[in-house]
């Protein structure tokens, strides 16, 4: 158990946060149907958290087998483009309007990045934000709260925490997880969270052919619709791996590309592999809080709810700090953008509160300290944090 006592002299308050360290369970022992690949500390790249493939049994087949009526492609495998359903979806895209760039090698950047055409706008390697990319919330002090890779067996613990604080989030759903845990997805939707697309098998999207990109997005869209009855119009590329080619196809399919703010990656995905720790993730988040007053806009943070360690650090570490931070407006992405229709069919269960884009909280109860102040409170409250003498006393009890 790690006990962190945070004392701010300006407010004469003490907040004690107990962060329960997750036991050293491997992903395989926690969830036999998925596995963790080797990690890298160089960033949220394709080698950090690889495909969610079965830990045992055959790998993805290279032999095409038609998907039976009412069924879905193999879990965690890139769908075959020969399938009649995919062939129908391909007609939705005019590939003559799609920029021509060769697929990447598993999303890995070339040694010489100067060889990448500037107009490719490859987020992974060029850190290029396209004009239509959603990478932040407009208003200063507004946090676009998002979680990737669910639903999982541990997602309900996250939902319990959010429900307790009447807090909503944007959940980027992997299609293979949607059909594996449909009841969990239904719960998230019924409780008013914004549901969005995170592909079928979690590949590096720039590594796929045009047709495979369509298959990944549309099968996920179908799995979500079949489960909750609405079609998301927001999507996030796994690893943030997107370029002009991928964006164009997603846009033609009616999707809005949502990434996260540069350098606002919690690194929680590295905890299961032992590269990051719960404490380092919390410290990273606390460091961001000091940047809020000087940022010209809000921010979107990368977090996950696939592994138990990721959920643990969120509900025991990051969220308690956030709930205790005055003026920090935590909202789903659609709320901070003042978009009341995050689905093709309209609002669904999502409720857009008045004053979107940072002047109001989406479903945050009055007992949540975040609702105590508006934008002015963000600046004043965070100025206090910056000016205060902040002492962190960390004691380890084994």
TrEMBL record:
Subcellular location: Cell membrane; Secreted, Cell wall
Chain ranges of the NodB homology domain: 141-331
Keywords, sorted A to Z: Carbohydrate metabolism, Cell membrane, Cell wall, Cell wall biogenesis/degradation, Chitin degradation, Cobalt, Glycoprotein, GPI-anchor, Hydrolase, Lipoprotein, Membrane, Metal-binding, Polysaccharide degradation, Secreted, Signal
GO BP term (any one): chitin catabolic process
Listed transmembrane segments: none
Enzyme class name: hydrolase
CC terms in the record's Gene Ontology section: plasma membrane; side of membrane
Membrane topology recorded in Swiss-Prot or TrEMBL: Lipid-anchor; GPI-anchor
GO molecular function, a single term: chitin deacetylase activity
E.C. no: 3.5.1.41
A Pfam match: Polysacc_deac_1
SUPFAM superfamilies in the cross-refs: Glycoside hydrolase/deacetylase
Chief site of localization: membrane
Catalytic activity: [(1->4)-N-acetyl-beta-D-glucosaminyl](n) + n H2O = chitosan + n acetate
Cofactor(s) essential for the protein: Co(2+)
Entry-linked InterPro entries: Glyco_hydro/deAcase_b/a-brl, NODB_dom, Polysacc_deacetylase_ArnD
Stated family: Belongs to the polysaccharide deacetylase family.
Name assigned to this protein: chitin deacetylase
């Amino acid at each position: 158990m790690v006990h962190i006592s945070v004392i701010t002299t300006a407010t004469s308050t003490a907040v004690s946060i107990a962060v329960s360290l997750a036991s050293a369970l491997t992903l395989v022992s926690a969830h036999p149907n998925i596995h963790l690949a080797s990690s890298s500390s160089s960033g949220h790249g394709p080698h950090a958290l690889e495909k969610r493939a079965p830990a045992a049994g055959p790998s993805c087949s290279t032999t095409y087998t038609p998907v039976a009526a009412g069924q879905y492609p193999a879990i965690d495998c890139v769908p075959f483009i020969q399938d009649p359903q995919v062939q129908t979806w391909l007609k939705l895209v005019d590939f003559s309007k799609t920029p021509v760039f060769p697929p990447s090698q598993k999303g890995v950047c070339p040694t010489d990045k100067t060889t990448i055409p500037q107009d490719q706008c490859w987020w992974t390697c060029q850190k290029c934000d396209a004009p239509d990319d959603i990478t932040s919330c407009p208003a200063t002090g507004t946090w676009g709260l998002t979680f990737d890779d669910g639903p999982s067996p541990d997602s309900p613990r996250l939902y319990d925490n959010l429900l307790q604080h009447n807090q909503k989030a944007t959940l980027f759903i992997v299609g293979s997880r949607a059909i594996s845990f449909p009841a969990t997805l239904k719960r998230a939707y019924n409780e008013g969270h914004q549901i969005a697309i995170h592909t079928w098998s979690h590949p590096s999207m720039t590594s796929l052919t045009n047709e495979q990109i369509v298959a990944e997005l549309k099968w996920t869209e179908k799995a979500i619709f079949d489960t909750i009855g609405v079609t998301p119009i927001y999507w996030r590329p796994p690893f943030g791996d997107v370029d002009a080619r991928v964006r164009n196809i997603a846009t033609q399919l009616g999707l809005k590309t949502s990434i996260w703010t540069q350098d606002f990656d919690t690194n929680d995905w590295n905890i299961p592999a032992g590269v990051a720790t719960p404490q380092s993730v919390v410290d990273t988040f606390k460091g961001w809080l000091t940047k809020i007053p000087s940022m010209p806009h809000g921010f979107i943070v990368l977090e996950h709810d696939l592994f138990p360690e990721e959920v643990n650090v969120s509900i025991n570490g990051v969220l308690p700090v956030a709930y205790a931070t005055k003026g920090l407006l935590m909202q789903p992405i659609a709320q901070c953008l003042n978009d009341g229709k995050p689905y093709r069919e309209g609002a669904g269960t999502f409720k857009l509160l008045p004053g979107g884009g940072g002047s109001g909280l989406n479903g945050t109860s009055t007992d949540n300290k975040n609702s105590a102040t508006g934008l002015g409170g963000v600046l004043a409250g965070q100025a206090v944090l910056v000016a205060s003498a902040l002492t962190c006393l960390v004691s380890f009890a084994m």
